[in-house]
Amino acid sequence: MSSSSLTLTSDPHHPHQDYDRLKEVKQFDDSKLGVKGLLDSGLASSSSIPLIFHHPPDSQPGPISHTRPTHTHHSIPIVDFSAPKPILTDQITRAASTVGFFQITNHGIPLHVIQRTLAAVKSFNELPADIKTAHYHREMGRGVTFSTNVDLYQSKAASWRDTLQMRVSPVLPNPSDIPEVVREEVLGFLSEGLGVEEGRLKEMTCLEGRTMAAHYYPYCPRPDLTYGLTSHTDPGVVTVLVQNEVVGLQVKVGEEWVDVELVEGAVVINIGDILQIISNDEYKSVEHRVLANPLQEPRVSVAVFCNPSNRDGLFGPLPELVSQEKPARYRQFTLSDYMQRKEGKMTTSWTDSNPGRRFIGCERYGQPGACGYFNWFDPPMCDRAKVVIPGLLRSLGRHETEKTRDDAEIKRLRNMNNVLFAALVATWCLFVPCALMVWLNK
Ligand SMILES: O=C(O)CCC(=O)C(=O)O
Ligand SMILES: [Fe+2]
């Protein structure tokens, strides 16, 4: 679909009589324009953005100051990585067990590497629309997706952001993938801060499943109505993030939303849900969000999520952190179960147009009241497979019906056989004594 044939409702007071949100979300997604394309095609004006991006009035951010950061009672700790080890362990442990976020400086990653990475993400998002649309899809099984909001069909309102997501482990496509060194060291400190062996988290494959999300937050004409990224916690072990010079990331500390201050060259680290569980609640996975960008300059960030790569092993609070005074707060779970619960259930489609193609969707997808989350896991099927597979399935179905009919017939004949045999036996039982009597009476 081209931008000229895309019409999206904008006015919240006069929505089109038959405004169908899911239909408009799908039209927008099928257009493959992304938020940046929407903006460039003039489908969002200085005073309005499409209704699919409007968050419910009670959760809208309201007026946003162009001169943030705002002053709050709290701030996100900045840890100087060149400090002596005991100080580092203390600072990182303290941050991880309170606000769940910290920034590190003097980590040894050259500033130009960070800047180059962010510049590459910006350039990709600013490529001509026809080149970018070729990359736009949300099939997670391919390892790379580019789309507006990974949870576009799951959330109640879309957010003003396009994301390129990549699985970067076990094979790292780019050897200069920045945050690795830091990530390894930081995990070492976090293990030590927990009082467990330095390599403990690494041993549990906590570092090995890595996904990178490169976010692009273009200028939003109505940042008071929508978000760049809604409030969430990260599901994994830790997230390592670099951001450009446009603010927007906020962390919830108590009842306050605290801006993550811009520190040139710093790397932001936050604790994810799995580390909170493994640490038996010593470390905190804290809610954070990104405000829609009110500035002409786009906000760019690159996050690397570290997850255990062993999806079928059991995870839970480390035994050395469980005691009578501090019993286990969580039971053991496998990562597959955990992710399915978080993301939705993997199901295989058997429709004629997508026979055998797997998708991830919320339970009861398509039924009234269900969440509407749907994501193909497998790539699209070729036309020949769409003809051949349903044909084979129909033929299999026919054979199964015939087999069921044959089985029923065999059963009927067996029963009849049994009846006849019983009749034969009965006849013989009557005939033999009769014949014997006749013979004896002779
Ligand atoms: O863009 C950002 O600064 C935050 C990204 C984030 O929180 C995420 O991808 O989970
Ligand atoms: Fe996050």
UniProtKB/TrEMBL annotation:
The keyword Transmembrane helix applies. Gene3D superfamilies: B-lactam Antibiotic, Isopenicillin N Synthase, Chain. GO terms for molecular function: dioxygenase activity; metal ion binding; oxidoreductase activity, acting on paired donors, with incorporation or reduction of molecular oxygen. It comes from the Eukaryota. The chain crosses the membrane at residues 419-440. The keyword S-adenosyl-L-methionine does not apply. PANTHER family: OS06G0255100 PROTEIN, OXIDOREDUCTASE, 2OG-FE II OXYGENASE FAMILY PROTEIN. Belongs to the iron/ascorbate-dependent oxidoreductase family. This is Fe2OG dioxygenase domain-containing protein. It comes from Rhododendron griersonianum.
